[in-house]
Design the sequence.
């Protein structure tokens, strides 16, 4: 099971969360002045990149709060979690931190090098 870290509650199973779409979208200042195509683009068109992507998540079955996360869409690994309103973390630093945290010791590391 995938574990997601809520910045307010800590690490929880993915079943407690709902996906909220792309993060850091600015709402139009005067939405009534947009034509239909511009409004449709704002509501439905999102970037769909292969790589690190900023997303909104909601801890629906917990504190109920929204937060943001950086996730690598090629591996489905989360790199960073941060509260709504906070600036997006540096992607290079988040990736380096995630890589360091994912270096687990192999289960057979106690065996000699020849495996015997």
Sequence:
């Amino acid at each position: 099971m995938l574990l997601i870290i809520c910045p307010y509650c800590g690490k929880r199973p993915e079943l407690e969360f709902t996906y909220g779409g792309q993060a850091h979208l600015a709402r139009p200042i005067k939405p009534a002045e947009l034509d239909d195509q511009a409004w449709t683009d704002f509501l439905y068109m999102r970037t769909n990149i292969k790589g690190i992507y900023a997303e909104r998540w909601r801890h629906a079955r917990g504190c109920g709060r929204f937060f943001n996360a950086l996730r690598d869409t090629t591996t489905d690994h989360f790199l960073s979690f941060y509260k709504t309103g906070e600036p997006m973390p540096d992607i290079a630093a988040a990736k380096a931190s995630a890589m360091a945290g994912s270096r687990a010791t192999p289960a057979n590391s106690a065996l000699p090098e020849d495996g015997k």
Q: What stands out?
A: DSSP finds two helices and six strands in the chain. The helical segments are 36-44, 91-101.
